Structure formats: C-alpha cells, structure tokens
Amino acid sequence: MKSRSILLLALCLLLCQCTEVLPWQRGKLADYTMRPDRDPLGVTFSEHICFSREAASGGRGIGGGGCGCN
C-alpha cells in the first residue's frame, strides 16, 4: 500500500509539470532574452573555460584540439 501511494504521488508530480503552451504564449518563449547565445562575451568565456579545462575545442563549428596551455 505504501509503495502504491508513493507511485501515485510521483505520478501526480510528473503530470503536474506537463502543460500546453498556447499560441499567444509562444511569443514570450521566442523572446531574445530566452536565447542561450544572446551574450557573445559569455559564450566566448564559457568556450574558453571548456577549452582550458578539457584541453579540446570544437562543438560549435571549430575543429581541432589542444593542450590548453595558451
């Protein structure tokens, strides 16, 4: 009985997260501020961190690799 109520609670929590985005609400989701690449300096900084820590570059159209010692 206890496992059934836990399963029911988990199912309710998962279903509460599902929602339908109506056509007139999609404009807010398509706003410029919702884009992850809206800050070019931040993207460059993140790529530099990944390059320095992982000793590789690429994944955004730039091929190659390196030791990260530059």
Structure description:
- By secondary structure, this protein is mainly alpha-helical.
- It has three helices and no strands.
- The chain has helices at residues 2-16, 26-29, 40-54.
- The radius of gyration is 21 Å and the shape is flat.
- The mean pLDDT is 76.
Helical fraction equals 40-55%
What is the average per-residue confidence, as pLDDT, rounded to a whole number?
76
Integer-rounded radius of gyration: 21 Å
Structural class: mainly alpha
Order of helices and strands: HHH
Shape: flat
As residue ranges, the low-confidence spans are none
* Count of individual helical segments: 3
Write a concise keyword list for the protein shown above.
3 helices, flat, mainly alpha, 70 residues, single chain
Please specify the SSE layout and strand pairing:
Layout: H1 2-16, H2 26-29, H3 40-54
Gist of the model:
By secondary structure, this protein is mainly α. Helix content is 49%, strand content 0%.
